[in-house]
Automatic annotation (TrEMBL):
Entry-linked InterPro entries: Acyl_CoA_acyltransferase, GNAT_dom, YpeA/RimI_acetyltransf
PANTHER family listed in its UniProt record: ACETYLTRANSFERASE (PTHR43420), ACETYLTRANSFERASE YPEA (PTHR43420:SF44)
Organism of provenance: Ameyamaea chiangmaiensis
Protein name as it appears in the record: GNAT family N-acetyltransferase
Domain N-acetyltransferase stretches: 1-118
Keywords: Acyltransferase, Transferase
Listed SUPFAM superfamilies: Acyl-CoA N-acyltransferases (Nat)
An annotated Gene Ontology molecular function: acyltransferase activity, transferring groups other than amino-acyl groups
Amino acid sequence: MSTLLGMPGTFAVLESGSADDPAAVRGFVMARQVLDEAEVLTLAVLPSCRRQGIASALLARLAVDCRGRGAGRLFLEVSEANTAARALYEGCGFAGIGRRRAYYADGSDARVLARSLTD
Ligand SMILES: CC(C)(COP(=O)(O)OP(=O)(O)OC[C@H]1O[C@@H](n2cnc3c(N)ncnc32)[C@H](O)[C@@H]1OP(=O)(O)O)[C@@H](O)C(=O)NCCC(=O)NCCS
């Protein structure tokens, strides 16, 4: 993660805080932006904190951040097999724009998704 964050244009949005441990990170999304295009590099929520809207909120905050940095479009790749993430992204306004065959180590295809940040 620290290597990724060292790359130019790379940044993260965190969701932290719980009653027990205010400093705990419950989820994060990492992205990279080059000129007016941004890309989600990775997104994860602690298993015990899933289905509480954290990933949706992180993506909404990321969209605001990227727009503020001048991005007009947000891209990502998701495994065809990752039904949870695909449902999440669809609900957050992403639509398919392409596919990479056998992109992942398990042989699954990657779907390339994008959403506009200008509407
Ligand atoms: C995918 C992931 C980030 C979702 O995080 P989350 O905080 O649980 O997601 P949200 O609570 O914001 O869910 C929003 C919507 O996404 C969909 N969704 C999320 N998890 C789902 C699941 N397990 N099955 C089906 N739909 C799911 C639902 O439509 C959900 O809305 P609902 O709860 O009102 O039905 C989380 O499961 C995760 O960290 N998975 C492992 C890492 C990963 O796959 N990252 C994505 C890589 S591309």
